[in-house]
Amino acid sequence: MIRWRLFEAGHCRHPEIATRRDGALGACEFPSLAALLQHPRQGWMLFDTGYAAHFLTATQAFPERLYRWVTPVHLQPHEPLVEQLRVAGIGPDDIRWVVLSHLHGDHVAGIADFPRARIALSQAAWDDLRGRNRWSATRQGFLPRLLEGATPRMDWFEQRPACSLPAALQAFGQGYDLLGDGRLLLVPLPGHAPGHFGLWFEDAQGPVFLIGDAAWSSDALVDAAPPPRLVSSWLGDTPRYLETLAHLRELRRAHPRLRIVPSHCRQWREHTHG
Q1: Which of 229, 248, 247 is CA-nearest to residue 239?
Q2: I need a surface site. Which of 71, 127, 172, 269 has the fewest CB within 10 A?
Q3: φ and ψ of 129, to 5 deg
Q4: Residue among 179, 204, 205, 198 at smallest CA distance from 260
Q5: pLDDT per residue over 71-110, tens digit each?
């Protein structure tokens, strides 16, 4: 059994219509959510990191500064995940693993704050990032500087044991068993970005599915409301995004008590700590 807590590590603002086709033109807040997990043998782990001060440093110069202009980031001194964990009595060196859903800047900005953690990510995501120049990376929401020096700590999803997923997840194909004990399953959720994955596990109340940016909100799953095609094609692969969103919506319909957690959901923001 896994224990877990959700944290908000900063937020950004941009028009709602950028995240759902029927959204409003006015700007609204999108929390950057990260999860702290406690594995019975491996100890403390993270799923994504949210924003951190490193994000502000990485976006000082051009072209990276454009990222900050397009999606203004709000991060108070106490909000980086590493600071919130310190308050909870968990030091940076206590984190054994950081699992990355994908490599957009708002999900990896805190990597340098946990220098002893192994970094689990998709090799497909990393290979895509390495093939980009600074303009191409910035245009699609990546900030390679945030991962400088982290390569020796990287552990590829695709090299973990392949596994069959629970019956409820059969539509998502084959997954990977992160630690080889069946407790943390990596689930491919293609479309939003190269090498995008979710994480499935069970706590004392049952299964939990952290889905990164495969949906922008819980409401988007209920309403089958994808972002505009311009946005989904700009960031990733629109047909695959729509297919993944449809699978997630059907999963939610078939299992209404399943906790599906999007990384920028304002409803799940109410469940955060710190």
Answers
A1: 229
A2: 127
A3: -65, -40
A4: 198
A5: 999 999 999 999 999 999 999 999 999 999 999 999 999 9
Q: What are phi and psi of 66, to 5 degrees?
A: -60, -35
What whole-number distance in Å separates Cα of residue 171 and Cα of residue 250?
10
Backbone angles phi, psi at 42, to 5 degrees: -80, -20
Give the count of beta carbons closer than 10 Å to the beta carbon of residue 87: 10
Six-digit token string for 106: 């708002």
Element holding 186 (H helix, E strand): strand 185-188
Q: Which residues of 160-172 are buried (b: 16+ CB within 10 A; e: fewer)?
A: beeeebeeebeeb
Cα diameter, the chain: 48
- Interatomic CA distance for residues 92 and 46, integer angstroms: 11
Q: What is the pTM of this model?
A: 0.97
Contact between residue 218 and residue 269 where contact means Cβ atoms under 8 Å apart:
no
3-state secondary structure of 140: coil
The tens digit of pLDDT for each residue in 5-58 reads 999 999 999 889 988 988 888 889 999 999 999 999 999 999 999 999 999 999
- With beta carbons less than 8 A apart as the criterion, state whether 30 and 19 touch: yes
d(CA 189, CA 245): 9
Q: How far apart are CA 210 and CA 35, in angstroms?
A: 9
Distance (Å, rounded) from C-alpha 169 to C-alpha 187?
8
Give SS3 for 85.
Answer: helix
Residue with tokens 């310190």: 86
Structural tokens at position 237: 């692969």
> Is 4:12 a contact under the CB 8 Å cutoff?
no
Q: Could you give the CA distance from residue 175 to residue 186 in angstroms, rounded to a whole number? A: 5
Cα-based angle 151, 106, 68 (whole degrees, multiple of 5):
115
Other CB atoms within a 10 A radius of the CB of residue 252 amount to: 17
